[in-house]
# Entry
Amino acid sequence: MEIHKTSWPMRILVFVLFLYLLAPVLLVFPISFSGDQVLRFPPTFWSTRWYVALFENSKMLSAFSTSLLLASIVTILSIVIAVPAAWVMTRVKFRGRDLLFNLFTAPLLLPTIVLGLAILIVFASFGLLATMRGLVFAHLVVTLPYALRILAVALNTQDQTCEEAARTLGAKPLTVFFRVTVPMLIPGIVAAAALCFLVSFDEVVITLFLTGPRISTLPVELYNYVYNQADPLVAAASVLLILLTLGVIMIVERTMGLSKTFVK
Amino acid sequence: MTTEALAPPRKMRSGEVAVLLLLPIALINAIGFILPVLNLARFSFNKVSIGGGIENVFTWENWLGLLADRFYLELIFNSVWISLAITLTTLILSYPIALYLHRSSGPWRTFLTVLVISPLLTSAVVRTYGWIAILIDDGPVVSAIRALGLPAPSLMFNIKGVFIGLTEILMPYMILALMAGFGRLDPRVEEAARTLGATPARTFRKVILPLTLPGIALGCLLCFVLAVSSFITPKLMGGGRVFLLATEIYDQAIVTLNWPLASTLSILVLIVFGAALWAYSAVLRRLD
# Structure
C-alpha cells in the first residue's frame, strides 16, 4: 500500500524530465532511418541508405574491428590481472592494504582529459603513441580499477566456509583457488568483464590523445566524423552501438541469472 | 585466516606470493598513473623553446603567464561559473525524478531506474550527437519555437547548446547520488509533518530538503567535477567557439603542441577539484 499519492502535476513534470533525459538517445533511432542527405528531424523520407553507407565506410569498419580487438584484449587482461589482485586484497591481511587499494582505484578519480594528457607525454618518450600496445596499456589503467572494485566486493561478500572446508580437507592453496574460489566468483567475473569491455569500447578522451592516422578506434572516428560534419551516418552507427551495449548487458543478465541458480 | 595462523612457516611464502600477484596491477598503476601524473606536475614548470622543442628547465613562466593573461583568467572563471550553473540546473531537473523514484516501488521502480542508468552506458559521443540533431538550426526545437511566432534562437555552436547537452548528460549521475542520499527520508516523517498541519511547501522546506541535503551535496560535487573536466560535449557542440578548461587543454596539447602549458592547465583543473572537495567536506561538517 503506497502512502504517497503522487499528484498529477508532479507526474507530468517527472514525465517531461524523463523525456528530456532520454531524448538524445531515443532520437538517433528514427534519424538512422533517414533518407535525407543532411541531419534533419523529422526526416522527409525513410530509407536504410545510411546503414549501407556505414558498411561501405572502410575507415569506420577498420576502426570498429580495432575497437573490438582492443576491448577484447583489455577485458581478458583486466580479469587475469584483477582476479589475483582482488584475491590478495580480500584474503591476505597486511599493513597498508587500504592505502594500496585506494591507490589502485585512484585513476578513476582523475578526469580523463588530465589522465589522457599525462599518459600522452609519458608514452611519447616510450614510443607507444598510435600503437595497439599503447592503447591496451592506457585502457588497462582505466579498466583495472573497475574490475578490482567489483571483484573485491564479490570476494568480500562470498561465503568463505567452502574455501575453509576445502583447506581443512587438505586441498592445496592453488587447488582451493581454482576449484572453489574462482567458480564461486563467476558472476563477479562476468560483471567485471562486461563493464571493462564497455568502458574500453566506449573510451574516447584518453584514446583521442593516443590515436593517429595509423590506428583509430570507433568512438574516436565517430568523434572526428561529428566534429567535421553532421549527417545521419553517425545515427546509424549509434543505433548499432546501443544494440551492442544492450547485447552485453543481456549476456550478463543471463549468465548472472544462470550462475545464481547454479550456486543456489 | 585461521589456518594461516596455525601454520606460521607458510606465512612467509604466502607473503611472497601476494607480492607476485599484486605485481602486474602495481606496475600498470605505477607506469600508467603515478609516473604520468608526477611527470605532468613537473612538465608544468617546463617551457617550449623557440624551435618548438620542450626545454627541461624549472620556470614559473606558465603559472605566472596564466595569471597575467586575460584570456586564461576569463577561461578559468567561465569554466568554473558555467560548471556551477550546470550543476545547479542539473540538481533542479534531477530532484523531482529522484524523489519520484524514491517513492515508487516494485517493477515500476526497477524499470525507471534502468531508464535512468541506460544513458550512462551510451557513449558521450552518441548522446552529444543526439543533442546536435535536436538543437541544430531548423531542428525540431528551433522549428517549434519559430512555429510559435517567436524569434528563433541559435542553439548550436555556442554556450547555450553546451549547457543544455551537458545538463542532460550529467543528470543520471545526479539522480543516482540523490537517490543514495534519500535513504534517510522516511515517509512517516513527512506524514507526521503533514498531519501536524504543515503545508506541502513548508513540509518540503522544513523536512524533506534538510534530510536530503547530504545527497544534494554529493550529487553537486560529482556533477561539478564532471562538468569542469568535460571535453566531448563542449568540443562537439561548441564547434570550436566555446572555450573551456578541458577543450583548451586538448587544443594546447594536440593543436599548439605546447605540452608545458597544457600540463599547467591540467594541474589547475586538479586544484579546482581539490577546492570542490574541500567545499564538499566543509558542507558535510556543517550538516553534522
